[in-house]
Every structure is written in C-alpha cells, then in structure tokens.
C-alpha cells in the first residue's frame, strides 16, 4: 500500500499555514496553535518571538499558580516580559542571557571526574565519607567527591583554556 506524496505535502502545508495539526476533515479534534507565523516587525521582536514559551492552560481560568514564576525559573525566564490581558503570565520569554543547549554525552565527563578521585555512586559508602560533595552530570547524581574545592578549581581551569566545553556549569 502506497501513500501519495501530494497528500503528505498538502497536509504539512495546511498544518503550517493554519497552526492546526491533525486531519483537515476533523478540525475539531486537531491540535490548535502548534505552529505560528514568525513575527518580523523588528529584530528585537523576532528574537523575542523565538524565545517565547507558552503554558498550555486555558486563558479564561482564574488560577494564579500557572501565571506565577517558580523559584526554579530564576535566571531562565524573564520576570518582566509577558503580555497583558488573558495571556498574562501564561506566555513567558527566556531571559536575556539564557540559551538552550543540546545535551551532551555524559560518559567522557564521568570518566574525567573518576580520574580526579570522584567516587562513583555505586561504590559510595556514606558511613566512610559522610561529608562528601555530590556530583551531578546532566542533572543525574553520578558520584561524590571528598575535595570539592580542588575539583572545582581543576574544572574551571580546563574550561577556561578550552579543554572542557564552555557550556559546562558548576553550581
């Protein structure tokens, strides 16, 4: 069984043009607002449009929590740039210095940390070293280190001279 290429092409054109993704004949069940036309009024408005996030909650709801910023948004979401009216707080923009990076493979970093005396989580005994500092890679707890300040100094130096990626962060 073959599918005509024109059917797929026309479906994609329709979805990108209208923003309604799904079957044209069943427009009621289609997802609306998935794609938008890029705003090109000014360079600043184009950048703002590309860095916009949309919370999928009904606009007429009176719930305050989805409209407020969470503490974990600090430095990631701009607290000032949001539209007025019903979409206030539901449409958020990334902050000025925030950017989204693609994930990287964790195994080279874990090997690097292991060579610098990081103890893997599987081998860690809390009774032996209760004051060890936790080490997270890509948000996953992978091990502990007994001298965190030394590890931070080494990682900062290698990041500054370009051996490690500049996207690697220390907290």
TrEMBL record:
A GO cellular component entry from the record: DNA-directed RNA polymerase complex
InterPro entries membership: DNA-dir_RNA_pol_su2, RNA_pol_Rpb2_3, RNA_pol_Rpb2_4
Sequence ranges assigned to domain RNA polymerase Rpb2 in this UniProt record: 36-100, 135-170
UniProt record, GO biological process: DNA-templated transcription
UniProt keywords, alphabetically: DNA-directed RNA polymerase, Nucleotidyltransferase, Transcription, Transferase
Presence of the UniProt keyword Transcription in the record: yes
One GO MF term: DNA binding
Protein name, entry field: DNA-directed RNA polymerase
Organism listed in the record: Alternaria alternata
